[in-house]
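cron nightly-structures :: item 1 of 1
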Amino acid sequence: MPASLTVQMPASAPRQLFLLFHGVGGTPHNLVPLGQRLALDFPQAAVVCVAGPDVSDLGAGFQWFSVQGISEDNRAQRIADTMPRFVATVRGWQQRTGLTDAETALVGFSQGAIMALEATQLGESLAGRVVALSGRFAQLPQQASATTTLHFIHGKNDEVVPYGHTVAAAERLVRLGGDITADVIPFLGHAVNEAVVELLVERLKGHIPKRIWAQAEQSALPQS
């Protein structure tokens, strides 16, 4: 498997784990600037840029699944076929750092975001937060995780993964009672720019997950 890049590993036991997943044909180096920014804002976090497991059939970089001949009919199966490797990768880093799913955030761009989003449909808790940058579900979600907060950030001018996928998924998840934020950035294409990074950090720092509110309300109830 291609080597992942550790951007930050605190000398003492880390308190959070950020796993960053690149797009198809990309490499871990593509997300190092984003990882460095997260390391700056979360100095007690382990930050890792993860490599896709296969050499991309686009001619460069790596991938989780092939996009050659990809369609709405076969995308879900391709993701399902590679998902066990994605889950094993996340669990492996959690074991190495001694951190739980609640202390883990998955940050994906494009195909990396697709894998992270689809992992929320497995019926198991893999991460406390998922950040989807220019991503989508293979199919509209059928369930909203009670333990995972989802943050969608998408460019309105994205011609690779149209932003309508984010709008439709957000609307479905809201109806299902999910904990989400969804932001569409005008004039942005299929990319991660400074505006995306700033918004990502703002969402991670400023949004208090529903599960935290629920725990606080429960603890405030009088005990019998």
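cron nightly-structures :: done
The longest strand covers residues 149-155.
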